[in-house]
């Protein structure tokens, strides 16, 4: 438990009159993730600390004194160029996999950097993301870690065939539901380790 970082984060947030929910929205994480950072039960990694420094308007070095330890919680990312899609998906993923560390990214390059610094168990990827295709991002993430389960999220069923050629673990049509996520988790190429809680 890191009370020093927790106290520093809470103090900065309150000084700026920002609620946990507002900070979570800016960070593309769930409110409970912010709460865990503030109670010291979980610590953000370098990328998240960089985001926090931007959201709170402080120098990143003032937050980097925290030790990083993700413990045994699986890292799950969701990458979509639409902020609303990430915001809608985060609580569903947290409901189904409450033990996971779940991060959202609107920029594929940030997701790749996160994957290089953290072992990503599951990557939920939109397919159409402006200049970058989710199919190409899938290939990049699998080069970083071949055991990452990639699940495509899209509103377009015509991509299904091409998606399977990338060695992805699954393909879900938006909007996702808790049941569709549970079904997908049962069919992962590389199952989550036994310590992960799935509801």
CATH homologous superfamily label of the largest domain:
Response regulator
- Count the DSSP helices: 9
Mean pLDDT: 84
CATH topology of the largest domain: Rossmann fold
Query: Poorly predicted ranges (pLDDT <50, ≥5 residues)?
Result: 65-71
Provide the number of structural domains: 2
Q: What oligomeric arrangement do these chains adopt? A: single chain
Second-tier CATH architecture of the largest domain: 3-Layer(aba) Sandwich
The coarse silhouette is globular
Placed side by side, the strands forming the largest sheet appear as: 2-1-3-6-7
N to C succession of SSEs: HHHHEHEHEEEHEHEH
Radius of gyration: 17 Å
The CATH class name of the largest domain reads Alpha Beta
| Helix percentage range | 40-55%
Strand content: 15-25%
Category by helix and strand content = alpha/beta
Report, as a whole number of angstroms, the end-to-end distance. Answer: 25 Å
Q: How many beta-strand segments? A: 7
Specify the biggest β-sheet. 5 strands, parallel
Compact overview of the structure:
The chain is an alpha/beta fold and 199 residues long.
Summarize the structure in words.
By secondary structure, the protein is an alpha/beta fold. The protein is built from 9 helices and 7 strands; from the N terminus they run H-H-H-H-E-H-E-H-E-E-E-H-E-H-E-H. The protein has 2 domains: 60 residues, lambda repressor-like DNA-binding domains (434 Repressor (Amino-terminal Domain), Orthogonal Bundle); 111 residues, Rossmann fold, CATH 3.40.50. The strands form 2 sheets. A 5-stranded parallel beta sheet has the order 2-1-3-6-7, sandwiched between helices. The chain has a two-stranded antiparallel sheet with strand order 4-5. Helix 5 links the parallel strand 1 and strand 2. The two termini are 25 Å apart.
């Amino acid at each position: 438990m890191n009370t020093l970082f927790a106290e520093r984060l809470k103090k900065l947030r309150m000084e700026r009159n920002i609620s946990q929910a507002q900070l979570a929205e800016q960070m593309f994480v769930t409110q409970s993730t912010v709460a865990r950072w503030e109670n010291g039960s979980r610590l953000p990694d370098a990328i998240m600390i960089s985001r926090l420094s931007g959201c709170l308007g402080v120098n990143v070095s003032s937050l980097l004194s925290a030790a990083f330890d993700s413990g045994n919680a699986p890292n799950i990312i969701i990458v979509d160029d639409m902020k609303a899609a990430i915001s809608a998906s985060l609580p569903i993923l947290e409901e189904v996999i409450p033990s996971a560390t779940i991060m959202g990214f609107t920029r594929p390059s940030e997701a790749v950097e996160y994957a290089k610094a953290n072992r990503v168990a599951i990557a939920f990827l939109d397919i159409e993301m402006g200049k970058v295709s989710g199919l190409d991002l899938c290939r990049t993430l699998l080069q970083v870690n071949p055991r990452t389960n990639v699940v495509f999220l899209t509103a377009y069923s015509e991509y299904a065939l091409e998606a399977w050629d990338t060695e992805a673990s699954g393909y879900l049509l938006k909007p996702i539901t808790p049941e569709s996520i549970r079904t997908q988790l049962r069919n992962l190429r590389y199952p989550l380790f036994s310590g992960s809680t799935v509801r």
